[in-house]
Amino acid sequence: MSKSISVSYSNTGPLHLRRGFGTHLIDEAGIQYLDTRNNVAHVGHCHPEIVSAITYQTQMLQTNTRYVHPHSSLLASKLVELMPRNSELKVVFFVNSGSEANDLALRLARAHVRQRRKLSTTGSADGNRNEFVITVDHAYHGHTISTLDVSPYKHRQGTEIDNCPNHVRMVPCPDVYRGEHATRHRMKRQRQQWHRESDMEAAKQYASYVERECESITSDGDVVSAFLMEGGMSVAGVILPPQTYLRRCIDAVHKAGGLYIADEVQTGFGRLGKCMWAFQYTYDDNNNPDCNNGDVETEMNEIIPDIVTVGKPFGNGMPLAAVITTPTIANAFESLGVEYFNTFAGSPVCCAAGLAMLHVLTSERLQENALHVGNFLLNSFRELQLRCEYIGDVRGSGLFIGVELVRDKVTLEPATEETSFVCSMLKEKFKILTSVDGAHDNVIVIKPPMVFSIEDATLFLSCFEKALVIELPTAKDDLGNLGRTPT
Amino acid sequence: MSKSISVSYSNTGPLHLRRGFGTHLIDEAGIQYLDTRNNVAHVGHCHPEIVSAITYQTQMLQTNTRYVHPHSSLLASKLVELMPRNSELKVVFFVNSGSEANDLALRLARAHVRQRRKLSTTGSADGNRNEFVITVDHAYHGHTISTLDVSPYKHRQGTEIDNCPNHVRMVPCPDVYRGEHATRHRMKRQRQQWHRESDMEAAKQYASYVERECESITSDGDVVSAFLMEGGMSVAGVILPPQTYLRRCIDAVHKAGGLYIADEVQTGFGRLGKCMWAFQYTYDDNNNPDCNNGDVETEMNEIIPDIVTVGKPFGNGMPLAAVITTPTIANAFESLGVEYFNTFAGSPVCCAAGLAMLHVLTSERLQENALHVGNFLLNSFRELQLRCEYIGDVRGSGLFIGVELVRDKVTLEPATEETSFVCSMLKEKFKILTSVDGAHDNVIVIKPPMVFSIEDATLFLSCFEKALVIELPTAKDDLGNLGRTPT
């Protein structure tokens, strides 16, 4: 296998995993690990209901969407039911991966903007020159050629794409801890109080980049085809944009004739606890659990994407992803006369896994669990932050949490090697698997299976504290030899 | 679900399938259909060994390639073993679909050509302007934005892409029955004797387009990044290029510094009976079964691709595909420093399905079965051709056969409506599922599960003859009302 496919913990010994159940993974030596990072096994590793759904359907029939099967239509309708109530998000395309989903979303946006503008549709690179996609710095949207173009995270990782491609405009990541418009709020955030006014101000500043791109593109006679963003940015290190940022961006993009594509591949299906989708996330002072499906914001302010993409957790590990859009956008695509066929997508077996995942999510009330355990984790990390020099920021919602480690809470110097050490220590000594992300590889990203319990969280917190407060100071001299843990 | 996702037999009543086994599918009313078209359920629908492998592994562990699992390394090495013995095709990337495989193959070719030419790597549309991919008319290589660009079949289907994109050069389909350089051979082919000299002449003529494109591109100071072709073109209507065509094309492309990407998504894993991969196919007068792995041609003439993509049959229905390339090309990609991570690809469950598929393929000697039953079908169709006015051409190899229906064996006027009628009749009256493809929707493409038996073939042939010789003439007046069967 190619060396481009990186293996976790390759510095201290890769994991040879053999079994999984719930929040645990077991290696070939029988050692059991607590999993704080796998957001694909959404309702837990090898959940019996998922296993049984796949087993049954694999015996019965595995075929494609050229034939009608109740699993695909049922799953499509269940997906539509999960969309915001006021939306027209009613048309579903099944695909195999988040990358395929975002790739198709870009095709849909292109079809929409062309129908709207009655542009000539040469489909060529030159013909597309005047259609722009706006993407956010440090975002990752997939590994296909088209989705790489809109993934600044990958542009920064190597030299495959040195500069932002010509048809893509990149705006700064709306990071209120470390970004350009975060400085003024830093002290307030360190005291861990959400401050509505300063957050709103940051939102305004960050959104102004999108507004300016829209103006600049349209004033040149060109068109904005889409603004593509994760409601909660994952590889950027758990960045939830400040309140009103999305609203402002979407308004600007809509005004310019473009679409808002909400990438929910990492964050969808209740991970944030408070809401089913990250684009619905709203800040509040007391973590009100009732803000689901936009109830908290007025209808006028409710965020409604034009296209939503889902993936990773959808099939609990089975390759299953989807694009949900409106009849208007689907019609624009259909009117081009090109059949959409995807061999494996929407097959009865993958859809059986998706249906079982959604059933367990509801029957075991895992969104509530994510909120409950997530709040416990957030509060505990914030308490730890007060007595630990390294914890610069604790952020997120539900079971989507980022703990950013810094060497200095004023300069915010990233504690990259320390973060890598803590993760290696957690794996080696405490048998806990974690994930590192963020622009400086210094954010521990907690995104475990949604069955992560208070007991799991308690164990994790206690080991994390030991690694950070006891192990790290005694090992500081050797840090240089450890290298970084691939995320 | 979007109306762009077309359903088979929507004119006469879509199929609501519920079960599958071997070469049979059963609908919700319990009606059993013979399946002559599903090349994904390679070793048969719901093969017990595949079911059992998936069931076991789903219970044990489903995770990603950041951890080491013996299934993925074993499957990668088995795939490498199936490559031509003299090749350096030793590096594997797992992906989820044929589309993802061809998309990644294009990335690899881009990395290779840039390393070779030390080009600046802007990755932008404009920066790519001088890197060309050569593709064949009527080819289909996938539904992602990059693979659509190289799929003339889709360019012709609608208005999403009106012209061949600027970075793509299209050459004519090497069709020796209907293409530009087929006329002189028509009478000989109608007598169904393969004629080495005329075929070689056609190969020379068709390959000259590729040679000329290579010359034109390089003489402008631009570069050829890849020549992408299926060894057996499927949606083009079972086009096996004439002898020496591939050799000539590859030589020209290599001379220009480009790579040959062999798309084996439809034809791989022994479907052609005589060989494991379609790019290895060689014509011979007596269907010699020993020409596997290039033994028949001298080593000098053996076709060795630079990149091979596989998909559809690989997981027998589970989403599983792969790209196989050489260390040199993989190194060029790796040296760009971009990690390749694909969430679902190469997971233990999908690899378990792939391993089981390969085991059944060998243990049940299905490649031999494909050759045996394929020869029986080819000979029987050719016999039928002599007494049936509609059968213009019978072509293919193993269980990859095209039967082209025409209204006139001299003008070759396509019998499009008649083909649609025959397929509808086969489904409605005889409970046999078929597939229609080709530029004029008049080629019945036979690509059943590889367990298709002589008994299945006998039943199919007898029903096909009845539909064509008895039903079609009596229904000719109503043909206009039938519409076309989506393929």
Automatic annotation (TrEMBL), chains A, B:
Listed SUPFAM superfamilies: PLP-dependent transferases
Keywords: Pyridoxal phosphate
Pfam families: Aminotran_3
Domain of life: Eukaryota
Database matches in PANTHER family: ALANINE--GLYOXYLATE AMINOTRANSFERASE 2-LIKE (PTHR45688:SF13), PTHR45688
Family: Belongs to the class-III pyridoxal-phosphate-dependent aminotransferase family.
Protein name (record): Uncharacterized protein
Species this protein is from: Discostella pseudostelligera
